[in-house]
């Protein structure tokens, strides 16, 4: 009896902030800090589900994305930025 390999993958969410923003984030009161962490977790979970659902629908093994990354950058500006 042969068993098919389990189609699974692990993902992690990390953030990288400029020093000033990191200071603000780490100094948030516990309620806001929890809210920020929860938001990142929910966004991470939804995006992973969308990607893995797509892979399942197309018969692509999850290890096809092993080592791949997704980066979201939020840039604050005091004026409306020009289009790139």
Q: Could you describe the 3D structure shown?
A:
The protein is mostly helical. Helices cover 43% and strands 0% of the residues. It contains two helices and no strands. The mean pLDDT is 90.
Q: How many beta strands in the DSSP annotation?
A: 0
Q: How many separate helices?
A: 2
Shape verdict: elongated
Q: Tell me the strand percentage band.
A: under 5%
Structural class: mainly alpha
Quick one: biggest sheet? none
Please give the share of residues in helix: 40-55%
- Mean pLDDT metric: 90
Radius of gyration: 18 Å
C-alpha end-to-end distance:
57 Å
H/E series, N to C?
HH
Give the low-pLDDT segments.
none
List keywords for this structure.
2 helices, single chain, mainly alpha
Entry summary:
This protein has 84 residues and is an all-alpha fold. Helices cover 43% and strands 0% of the residues.
């Amino acid at each position: 009896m042969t068993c098919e390999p389990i189609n699974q993958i692990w993902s992690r969410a990390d953030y990288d902030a400029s020093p000033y923003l990191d200071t603000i984030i780490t100094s948030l009161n516990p309620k806001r800090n929890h809210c920020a962490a929860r938001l990142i977790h929910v966004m991470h979970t939804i995006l992973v589900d969308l990607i893995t659902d797509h892979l399942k629908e197309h018969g692509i093994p999850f290890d096809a994305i092993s080592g791949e990354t997704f980066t979201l950058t939020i840039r604050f500006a005091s004026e409306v930025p020009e289009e790139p």
